[in-house]
Amino acid sequence: MTVFISIAFICIVGIYFTVFPLPLQILTVGSLFFLLGIRAVKVKEGHAAARSFLMGAGLTVLSIGGYWILTQLEGITAEEWHYYRIGFLLLAAALWCLCGNMIRSAWIQWIGVMHGAVVYALMIMKTLPEMNSLLLQWLWIPESFLLVWLAWMVHKQKRGLSGALLLSALSCIIAPELMQFFRSDIDSSWLVQVESILLAKLLTLFLIAFYFRKQWVKWIRDNETV
């Protein structure tokens, strides 16, 4: 009966959520987030996958539902919308990182850090509307090395956070190419160059991972529960 009622509730919310009044939408998103979050915290320590799934589901509802609610705001300018979106993403990033640290999940903390990376990308696009490949590499690659250094510094004290920072560093390395893929004015000739740079980066990462395979395989074995 509990499973049936839960499925029915989720279906009703999923179908009629967009026609709910704005206060009811906020209440629905907040309720689902807290219910799933509380359920995730109550799961036993030995069931890390279940805890991560429940907490991730609650945070996903919060991120998607919150962003949808943000788009329903009326009477705001494009400049105000930009800052509202940045503020919401920063709040979501803090919640993802906090909840991921609470249940010691590297994946959830990684998604939180990537929320922050999206904020950084939005600020770049706002400040520099005309982006070139060399400038984007300069804006992202040093940050990825900084994240690798931070991951190494905390890998003994905060294993989950260390894994999240390392995954974020790998994501930031290919961020310049991803930003250019989303450009609407990119031509086919330039797209080939971007794809070539992305392929070269992936090949370089593969070679580095192969060279240091003994170190990172041992790290994974020592942190199987992260």
Task: List descriptors.
mainly alpha; 2 domains; 10 helices; single chain; 226 residues
What are the SSEs and their pairings?
Blueprint: H1 2-16, H2 22-42, H3 48-71, H4 78-103, H5 106-127, H6 133-153, H7 159-173, H8 175-181, H9 188-211, H10 213-222
Characterise this structure.
This protein is an all-alpha fold and 226 residues long. It folds into 2 domains: 1-74; 100-226, no CATH class. It contains 10 helices and no strands. Helix 2 runs antiparallel to helix 3 (48-71), helix 3 runs antiparallel to helix 4 (78-103) and helix 6 (133-153) crosses helix 8 (175-181). The longest helix has 26 residues, at 78-103. It is globular. The two termini are 34 Å apart.
Mean pLDDT: 78
Integer tally of domains: 2
Number of strands: 0
* Helix content estimate: over 70%
Radius of gyration: 20 Å
Number of helices: 10
Question: Strand-and-helix sequence, N→C?
Answer: HHHHHHHHHH
- Low-confidence segments, given as residue ranges, are none
Oligomer: single chain
Report how far apart the termini are.
Answer: 34 Å
Beta-strand share of residues: under 5%
What does the largest sheet look like? none
Write down the overall geometry.
globular
**What structural class is derived from the secondary structure elements?**
mainly alpha
What's this, in brief?
By secondary structure, the chain is mostly helical. It is built from ten helices and no strands.
